[in-house]
Amino acid sequence: MNVGYHLIVTLLVLPAFSPTLVSAENALEVKFPFATETARTNFSKCFPDVSKNDLSKMANISKYGYKEFSEPLACPPGVSDCKPGIHFFRSTRFIEFVAPNLRPSKFRSILLGNEGGNCSYDRFKNISTTVSRNTIIHRFSPFHQERKCVRGAKFDVWDTSADVTLTVVLNNDFSLSSSHSVGNAKQKFFGVFNSSHLGGLVSPILMGFASTVSVPVMLNMLSTPSGLNFGTDSNFAKTGINLHAYSNLQKKLDALGHRPVTDYQTIRERSGFFQEGDEVSIEVIQAAYALELIRKDFINVRKIEIDFLSSLNEVAPKEYTVAPGDNLWKIVKAHYLDPRLYPVVAELAGLRNLQRLVPGQTLSLPRWQQLCEKLGGNPEAVLPRESLWLKASRGQIPRDLRRVKTLSGRPSLIYPLEVLRVEDGNDKR
Questions:
Q1: How many CB atoms lie within 10 A of CB 148?
Q2: Range of the domain at 193
Q3: What is the mean pLDDT of residues 104-111?
Q4: Which of 268, 288, 310 corresponds to the end of one domain?
Q5: Does residue 429 fall inside a structural domain?
Q6: Is residue 2 in a domain?
Q7: Tell me, what DSSP letter sits at residue 100?
Q8: What is the pLDDT of residue 81?
Q9: 107 with 209, same domain?
């Protein structure tokens, strides 16, 4: 499946959250980008080959973003052919997966839900939870009081108690396993001895909890040059947009002969459980190295990536008020990074392409999913270096080019990322 990324997280379904964007000078993140049905539907407009089943699992992503973009450094790990004078920087990415069944309050509710009894009774005491990077340790003390109840009178027969420790471990492959130990078992007898009752009391608790955490958490990513970032920078969100192409950056990269970005690799020793209040997540930390030459462009693309995710829950266009000195090229570059998108942005915003903008005027800028629908896989969308004759030879437009209307009005002048208009006719393509 040719997608920018593919995540499979097998945990419980999230409660409803709305995505929120958080950004700082050296950090970018979005919370719960896939939590709503609207967000998943809009994402599928850009990535129609991602199954609904996988989209539902992606709802468990509670946070996604970038923690740092390091200072320049020499040849990074895994790169052996660094040329003299070439520097890199490290991009650190994090992905958090919410795990509702690992909450301390969830475990407490499981225990307290098993308390009961009017005559003989079961209780759980000394309940505590400790979360570290690779382990979650639950401790509790089950207590059973056995009584004989006759005509309102209660006679103690025996009681039993113990200290139980349940340990949940995050393995190196991000699967979860659990174990338990029982110690300090105490019993007081006043009659009948029942040594099996403690095990009968604790075992259902352990088995019930283990069934909620023993399902493995699987993280599977395609190895693309830019990793898990929704396609490559040269085909952002699978729209055909090359976010570097409007500058001369690609020519510089070609001259260097270096791969611009290494694959993101998981840093297992920095990944693990993450607790924030009562919420427990599984945090995966990854790192990639990019050429210092592309730092500005790389970080700008990451900002666009986070903007793309944070807007998935939106159904209405983004409102923008024209400021003095604005023009469509400048506005499109600021919001979408590639100013060559101005023809399709103008069309979706209901503007004539050469319409003069007036300060104070309100523009309805399209969301990324609207651009995906307009450009992604559209045979009438013009990609860089394409000509009408090339598109006609591929059967994407009619061979009779008189039926094809361009933005310039001339078949010899077409603009990258404009969408051609084909007049009705009976000619075969």
A1: 14
A2: 101-213
A3: 88
A4: 310
A5: no
A6: no
A7: G
A8: 74
A9: yes
- Tokens standing for residue 250: 């690609």
β-strand partners of 176: 170
Q: DSSP secondary structure string, 29-83? A: EEE-TT-SHHHHHHHHHH-TTS-HHHHHHHTTEEEEEEEEEPPPBSSPTT---PP
Q: Which two tokens stand for residue 270?
A: 């920095």
Q: Are 404 and 421 contacting, i.e. CB atoms less than 8 angstroms apart? A: yes
Domain assignment present for residue 4? The answer is no
What's residue 248's pLDDT?
Answer: 61
Lowest-pLDDT choice from 109-123, 222-236, 261-275, 387-401: 222-236
Q: 229 and 86 in one domain?
A: yes
- Whole-angstrom Cα distance, residue 58 to residue 236? 19
- Tell me the three state secondary structure of residue 261: strand
Could you give phi then psi for residue 234, rounded to 5 degrees? Answer: -90, 0
Joined together, the tokens standing for residue 277 give 């209040």
Look at residues 343, 376, 346 and name the one whose alpha carbon lies nearest to residue 364: 346
> What are φ and ψ of residue 328, in 5° steps?
-65, -40
Helix/strand/coil (H, E, C) string of 123-179?
EEEEEEEEECCCEEEEEEEEEEEEEEEECCEEEEEEEEEEEEEEEEEECCCCCEEEE
Q: Quick one: tokens of 296?
A: 């500005």
Rounded Cα–Cα distance for residues 155 and 388 (Å): 95
- Please report which confidence band the pLDDT of residue 19 belongs to, taking 50, 70 and 90 as the band edges: very low
pTM, two decimals, is 0.77
**Judgement on whether residues 413 and 330 belong to the same structural domain of the protein:** yes
- Provide the pLDDT for residue 361: 93
Amino acid at 402: R
Does residue 93 contact residue 55 with C-beta atoms inside 8 Å?
A: no
Pairing label, strands 135-150, 121-131: antiparallel
